[in-house]
Amino acid sequence: DAGITQSPRHKVTETGTPVTLRCHQTENHRYMYWYRQDPGHGLRLIHYSYGVKDTDKGEVSDGYSVSRSKTEDFLLTLESATSSQTSVYFCAISELGRDSGNTIYFGEGSWLTVV
Amino acid sequence: DQQVKQNSPSLSVQEGRISILNCDYTNSMFDYFLWYKKYPAEGPTFLISISSIKDKNEDGRFTVFLNKSAKHLSLHIVPSQPGDSAVYFCAASATSGTYKYIFGTGTRLKVLA
């Protein structure tokens, strides 16, 4: 299993409050991603990072921000949570030029409920 | 604009028979494709991948076929087993670009014993 830890694994929060999800990896992979999974939408890319302090938007980035101050940590922040952000959030990592090719590996998920 | 599409939300197959899951893409820059399997309450796990320089890749019971001209790929599972029951996602990336992985909406496979 890829060394990816997501925290918290489950969280219930109120509308309008800030929330930060953390992804920690022990693989020293360059690329890190945040996806959300919703019924009927599959896995949608929120933001990704291609190095320390290098991030870019994905398909559904509105309402989310990210930060990567260290190779091993990628934080996803909901500045003011809304009910539409109730979802399961997956962190993923990837490396290039390795024997594993361009495979992306996922964490176990963080279940967020905004009430 | 859905760049990766899985048009069948669900599929039921008898144990021992072949399961065929399909995926279409629209972006001609995609050159690397992957399939993932997901069980409830778990993260997606990697199954098999294929580069655009190939048209077929096999790994045990799993084979992925790529038809570049049709922008279509498929995953064949032979023989299907009850433990294969899960949601399957296809994904695509442009390796010369930003290394974003775009996923389809998933197909729920149910293998009947």
Overview of the molecule:
The complex is a heterodimer of chains A (115) and B (113). Chain A is mainly beta and 115 residues long. Chain A has strands at 4-7, 10-13, 19-25, 31-38, 42-51, 54-57, 64-70, 73-78, 87-94, 104-106, 110-114. In chain A, strands 2, 4, 5, 6, 9, 10 and 11 form a 7-stranded mixed β-sheet that branches. A 4-stranded antiparallel β-sheet of chain A has the order 1-3-8-7, with no helix packed on it. In chain A, strand 7 and strand 8 (73-78) form a beta hairpin. Chain A is globular and about 40 Å long. Chain B has 113 residues and is an all-beta fold. Helices cover 0% and strands 54% of the residues of chain B. Chain B starts with a strand and ends with a strand. The chains are: A mainly beta (115), B mainly beta (113).
Short description, anyone?
The complex is a heterodimer of chains A (115) and B (113). By secondary structure, chain A is mostly beta strands.
Compute the average pLDDT of chain A.
Answer: 92
User: How many E strands of chain B?
Assistant: 11
* Structural class by sheet pairing and helices of chain A: mainly beta
- Tell me the overall shape of chain B: globular
What is the radius of gyration of chain B computed over CA atoms, rounded to a whole number of angstroms?
13 Å
User: Could you tell me the strand content of chain A as a percent range?
Assistant: over 45%
CA radius of gyration of chain A is 14 Å
Largest interface: A-B, 28 and 25 residues
Strand % of chain B is: over 45%
Poorly predicted regions of chain B are none
- Tell me the number of strands of chain A: 11
The helix/strand series of chain B, from N terminus to C terminus, equals EEEEEEEEEEE
Largest sheet of chain B: 6 strands, mixed
The end-to-end span of chain B amounts to 38 Å
Q: What overall geometry of chain A do the principal axes of the alpha carbons give?
A: globular
Largest sheet of chain A: 7 strands, mixed
Instruction: Report the order of strands and helices of chain A.
Output: EEEEEEEEEEE
The percentage helix of chain B is under 10%
Taking pLDDT < 50 over at least 5 consecutive residues as the criterion, the unreliable ranges of chain A are: none
